[in-house]
Amino acid sequence: MKVTRLQIVSRGLTNRCPNCGGRTLFRPGSLFDTNRECGRCGLRIERDEGFFLGSLSLNYGVTVVCFLVPVLVIYLMGGFSGRTAAIIAGIGAIGFPILFYRSSRSWWLMFYYFFLPQHLPANQRPVAADEDENT
């Protein structure tokens, strides 16, 4: 089975395992708990300690660009009062990252494997028996 970059992107956008496509990134019934590995194919989701710090940065950047900057622009154009803009920005700065949490985790995995697709177990060629004996 060869996983293409297009499959990696489509799986990342739908919160699926980048290796097998299973809905196994998160524990059932939990909003925030990520599985350590995929229940279907065994892919290590939690690669290393600190791996998902990138998803934190991604979540922060998307919150600023897609939510806080538009609120600021609308305020500067006179669409909101200062108090209204501050309330909307405050609620959004807390609420949007919570709602975007799962997507940021999935997208971080997607970006990682998009640029390093050979790291997916499905894309690694099996070691032949002859090569095994020679090493």
Which sequence of SSEs, written as H and E, runs from N to C? HHHH
Question: What low-confidence regions span 5 or more consecutive residues with pLDDT below 50?
Answer: none
The percent range for strand residues is under 5%
Number of strands: 0
Tell me the domain tally.
1
The average pLDDT is: 89
Largest sheet: none
Radius of gyration: 20 Å
The total of helices stands at 4
User: What's the N-to-C terminus distance?
Assistant: 26 Å
How would you sum up the global shape? elongated
What's the helix and strand layout?
Layout: H1 5-13, H2 53-76, H3 82-115, H4 129-134
Q: Which key features would you list for this structure?
A:
135 residues, mainly alpha, elongated
Describe this structure as you would to a colleague.
- By secondary structure, this protein is mostly helical.
- It has one domain.
- The protein is 54% helix and 0% strand.
- It has helices spanning 5-13, 53-76, 82-115, 129-134.
- The longest helix has 34 residues, at 82-115.
- It is elongated and about 70 Å long.
